[in-house]
Specification:
580 residues, alpha+beta, D-Maltodextrin-Binding Protein, domain 2, Dipeptide-binding Protein, domain 1, Dipeptide-binding Protein, domain 3, 16 helices, globular, disordered N terminus, signal
């Protein structure tokens, strides 16, 4: 949710959404150049997830463009206020902020900026830039029907209702005041971490009309050659692009951090898993991923290094709980019995074994057990709804559902619906076909419809009458919300609660996880939320699959510098050798 965000499965991603690229240290094969030393020059060509394009270059993310890919390209140009490390801690050496302090109640936070950071035009990054960016986030979270676009971070870190004020205190300090005491570590990670400043001097086109400002941002959000993107504080500047082909960046010569050794970084569009695999074989892509359907033939990539790494998140299919959902299916999904039957029809061990060559873990709640973390409740190691379609069928019959022309029906509502899934991956297609087959054993009829990823993630409450269930071929990775609570995901009216799930108990448990306390107390509250989600099923949980990453033997640093917590790439730390 980038906010992580949606990670594309299997493309380093389970969508993620993960493009994940090179993982964090696990299970790598291949050899790198012996005694090689970093050198300047060369182009890193990064394969994008299949049929996925960056389409929002402004770092305050729109709800309908909230993807890992957009987050990754935005961070090429703009630095976040806080840099979250692979260990889910703040790395101030790579943050705009040099420190954050707070009071004992967790209601007042003082963010001090490091004076070394400048925009590429030489002007300093200031507290007023932070305040201006906050005002954009706030304006895009008003909920007004006339909004040109909505902020994807609404509901995460209590934004905006918890935030009482954000004010500049001199040129290098920002004071954030909250309306109520909160868990400081939660607010640091999920609240303050959402701030990715833009230069007010460049973007403040309508000082007295924020609606016009939002319209302007919307008009240039997918126009990276616009002059507004020439002033950045990140390691790269945008260079050129060809739609459905490539998007290129060159080093920012005025960058105040670790400057790029590469001459260029290019994100390359991929039409299919097969084409991406061919690009790896021919060397036209030197940083990419191994499609799960091709795991058996990875030995053909003789000039690459293969690595596996889990991102920090979970994987699920999204139900549409809205009463506007087609054919009354929203009312059916609001029944826990129906959700239990759906979950019992998911053969997670079979999916892992047969579609992902044994890679992956069973995922039954809002945080997967891999990678290991204290945030995962060990009591959830046992799936409360293991695969058992016969039990799911009997459960439905016991609660008044009966077969009508082969489809479970109750009160005139048939368990027959459309599952929209992200196109481009054969493994993703195989998985939804398996789900369709297993659900049919319970009397649940599913029609599969393949859609481009950008189309799938645009489904929301605003078009609730047009969709029933979504599989974006991936899951949620905790990027800008690395304290894994669910306010933006499953709280009522959360920005990423596209399925309109609504539970007052869920709201209360999420709110409790935000409260200050000892480490034991805050983890107990988080675990209570995870257990409730596992039992009440605000979504259909499916396996969490690692990123299958590939990079050329000639490119160095991708595995070491990749951050699996937020799917953050750092190509300014990569380099290319001229020989192997």
């Amino acid at each position: 949710m980038t906010r992580t965000r949606w990670n594309l499965l299997g493309t380093s991603t389970l969508l993620s959404l993960s493009l994940g690229l090179s993982g964090c240290g696990a299970n790598s094969t291949g050899a790198t150049t012996a005694h090689a030393q970093p050198m300047h020059g060369g182009t890193a060509v990064i394969a994008l997830p299949v049929q996925t394009s960056p389409n929002w270059f402004f770092p305050v993310m729109s709800l309908t463009a909230d993807s890992v890919v957009n987050f990754q390209v935005d961070e090429m140009m703009y630095k976040p206020l806080l840099h979250i490390s692979r260990h889910d801690t703040v790395n101030y050496a790579r943050s705009l902020a040099s420190s954050v302090t707070w009071n004992a109640a967790g209601t007042r936070y003082v963010v001090t900026l490091n004076k070394k950071w400048h925009w590429s035009n030489g002007q300093p990054v200031t507290a007023q830039d932070v305040v201006f960016t906050y005002n954009i986030m706030k304006a895009a979270s008003s909920g007004a029907s006339s909004l040109p676009w909505a902020f994807a971070g609404e509901g995460f870190g209590g934004f905006p209702t918890l935030w009482k004020s954000v004010v500049a205190q001199g040129p290098y300090q920002v004071v954030i005041t909250l309306n109520a005491p909160k868990n400081q570590q939660w607010f640091l990670r999920n609240g303050i971490n959402q701030l990715i400043p833009v230069p007010e001097q460049v973007w403040n086109k309508y000082p007295d009309n924020m609606t016009q400002e939002l319209k302007f941002i919307n008009s240039v959000a997918n126009s990276p050659l616009s002059s507004v993107y020439r002033v950045v504080d990140g390691p790269y500047k945008f260079n050129s692009y060809s739609p459905n082909n490539y998007w290129s960046f060159v080093p920012n010569p005025g960058y105040d951090g670790h400057r790029s050794l590469l001459d260029k970084v290019t994100f390359q569009y991929e039409t299919s898993s097969a084409s991406e695999f061919d690009a790896l074989k021919t060397g036209t892509v030197n940083v990419g991923y191994l499609p799960p359907s091709l795991l058996k033939v990875r030995s053909e990539l003789t000039h690459d290094v293969f690595s596996v790494a889990y991102s920090f998140g979970f994987n699920y299919l999204l139900d549409n709980f809205s009463l506007k959902a087609p054919n009354g299916i929203g009312k059916a999904f609001n029944s826990l019995v129906v959700r239990q039957a759906l979950q019992m029809g998911v053969d997670q061990p079979g999916i892992i074994q047969h579609l992902y060559e044994g890679y992956g873990v069973v995922d039954d709640t809002t945080l997967a057990p891999e990678p290991p973390t204290e945030f995962f409740d060990p009591a959830l190691a046992k799936n409360p709804y293991p695969f058992n379609p016969q039990a799911g069928r009997e459960l439905l019959l016991k609660h008044g559902w009966h077969l009508v022309h082969g489809v479970m029906t109750k009160n005139g509502i048939p368990l027959s619906f459309t599952l929209d899934y992200a196109s481009g991956s054969q493994t993703a297609t195989d998985m939804v076909q398996l789900l369709k087959s297993d659900w049919a054993l319970e009397g649940i009829h599913v029609t599969l419809v393949s859609q481009p990823f950008d189309t799938v993630i645009s489904d929301s409450p605003s078009n609730a009458s047009q969709w029933a269930m979504i599989d974006w071929n991936g899951g949620w990775t905790y990027g800008t919300d690395p304290y894994p609570t669910g306010g933006g995901l499953f709280a009522t009216n959360g920005a990423e609660n596209s399925g309109s799930y609504n539970s007052q108990t869920m709201n209360q448990l999420i709110a409790a996880s935000y409260q200050p306390g000892s480490t034991k107390q805050v983890l107990k509250a988080l675990y209570a939320y995870e257990v409730y989600a596992a039992k009440q099923l605000p979504a259909v949980f499916v396996p969490w699959i690692p990123n299958f990453n590939e990079h050329s033997l000639s490119i160095h640093g991708t595995v070491k510098t990749f951050d699996p917590v937020g799917d953050v790439l750092s190509p300014n730390y990569w380099w290319i050798s001229t020989s192997q």
